[in-house]
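Subject: Interface between my chains keeps coming out wrong

I've been trying for a while to get a sensible model of this assembly. When I model each chain on its own everything looks fine, but I need the whole thing in one frame so I can look at the contacts. Pasting all components below, labels as-is. Any help appreciated, I'm running out of ideas.
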Amino acid sequence: MTLNVNEIRKDFPILERHTANGARVVYLDSTATSQKPLQVIEAMNEYYRRSNANIHRGVHTLAEEATAMYENAREKIAAFVHAASPREIIYTRNTTESINLVAYAWARANLKAGDLVILTEMEHHSNLVPWHMLQMERGIELEFIPVTEDGLLDLDAYKALLNRTPKLVSFTHMSNVLGTINPAAEIIRLAHEAGAVTLVDGAQSVPHLKVDVQALDADFYAFSAHKMCGPTGIGVLYGKSALLEAMPPFLGGGDMIKEVKLRSFRPNTLPHKYEAGTPAIAEAVGFGAAVDYLSGIGMEKIAAHEHQITEYALDRLVEIPGVKVFGPSADKKGGVAAFTLDGVHPHDVAQILDKDGIAVRAGHHCAQPLHEKFGIPATSRASFYLYSTKEEVDLLVNGIYKVKEMFG
Amino acid sequence: MDDLYREVIIEHYKNPSYRGKLDPHDISFADNNPLCGDHIQIDLRVGKDGTVIEALFDGHGCAISQASADLLMESIIGKPLEEVKKLSKQDILDMLGIDLGPVRLKCALLSLKVLKAGVYGLGEASDDLVE
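Reply #2:
Try treating it as a single job with all components included. I did that and got this:
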């Protein structure tokens, strides 16, 4: 049942590289973007070498092959998150664009001044700013489910907010800073009881957990390929077909239309209604290969491995005097450890670790309000994936001791 | 790389000589580095002849940003504002005595941007001020 990490690491050539100082790369930044296995790199390479053409209109061999590959990837992704149909899988550029699609197409058709949208204090900027923009344009109201001191959502406060009959509840399934895995099914059930539509930011959850959009009963669910072994430049908005059918289109242009006259158009059927212009075809092929790769290993196994590493990392980090780790205990979180070191700015921590090839992220991780809540400008963040090892955690810990020595 | 954390930088970061606020002041300006949230405020007292009499900075950020602010304050006291306006990216790098990549350069130049925006009376500390 355990992962053979040594075998898995052979699929990721980048993990063999060394930095200018001769140190082997210790990649602890998978929450920002994961590394890509050969299976994905080669699938995209093969697409360009053998099948490249524009999709959907051409009748020649290459166009048919490219179209089949593009749509075949959609079917794989639908199965991966257990959507009822591939028609409910809309390709976008990334999670951010998926959330913006809902904010433009669904929200502008359904929300008016005074309508309430509930978000949380642990959101990434991508699930805050689109709603700030709509607030300025439409005068909608925003409320936030508070985050407790131990990094969990305050569900009692949430239930109280629901009495104000929100129109939309939009929240992250897994925090990119605290690692908190939120009780998505319960949040959605409560939202539905209050008559609200739900949107889930799944950028961190789909790469690391077994996600079933139907079991969750999510109305919209957004995620990106690049955090789950796939390429950058492509993401997905899952939406229940009834909602997607009823919404107006998002971007206008080719491929999203059924018919165009000089003064009018009729939109295409799902999913093409929301995919204007030539899409990221090779990236879709890579996304399909990434889903195959993760499914082949098994998401339960991946989650169990990450849990082991995270538990070990948290134990080792809290041993270091001056280190403070944010977020809940390992049983309530994914593979993320955001921390501060007394007296040293996170940028300095990250820069000194880089000298030993250790890649961690420093800053507010696009969650500035959450950092403000905890009264800190920034954190250093180490994050783990299926290829992470305990040895890498040890190197991180040794590196932090070096930083302490330097800043004495 | 080791150079990046030269003793002088860590020393100015841990024990700055020019940290604080001036009240009253003749010039005060503050801004952030939007990438990492580093924050610098600079207060100046200026004499009748246009020279800087006192200069203090306040804020938070990495060792590079805070040390360069401290060094910058030290360097402008007694200088005419006209000379302060001429300070460049290279002057900061010379003070720090290190070379910096594009990301950390923004940390190092934040204090100079804030200073110049204050001296010129601008609303914003833009990158053009230090190019």
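Reply #3:
Confirming on my end. Residues 52-296 of chain A form a domain with the Aspartate Aminotransferase; domain 2 fold (CATH 3.40.640.10).
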